[in-house]
Amino acid sequence: MALELELISPIDVAKDIAQAVQEYTLLATQSLANLFRRPRYMGDMLQQADLIGVGSLPIVVLTGLAIGALLALNSANTLQRFGGITLIGQLVSLGMVTELGPLITGLMVAGRNASGMASELGSMIVTEQIDAMRALGTDPSKKLVTPRVGATSFMLFFLTIIADLLGLSGGWAVAHLLFGLDSRQYWTSSWQILVFRDVFTGLVKPVLFGFIISTVGCYYGMSTRGGTQGVGRSTTQAVVASSVLILVVDFFVTKLIFAVLGYR
Amino acid sequence: MATPTLPIDSRTAAQSGSSAPAIVFDNVSIAFEENVVLNGVSFHLPRGETKALFGIAGSGKSTILKLALGLLPPDSGRILLLGEEVTRMSEQELFELRRRVGIVFQESALFDSLKVRENVAFRLMEEGISEEEIERRVREALRFVELEQTVDMFPSELSGGMRRRVAIARAIITHPEVLLYDSPTGGLDPVTSNTIVELIMKQRDVYKTSALLVTHRLQDAFTMATHQFDKDTNQMISLPKGQLCDVSMSFLILRDAKVIFDGDAHQLTTSRDPYIREYIS
Question: Is B112 at the interface with chain A, CB within 8 A?
Answer without folding.
Answer: yes
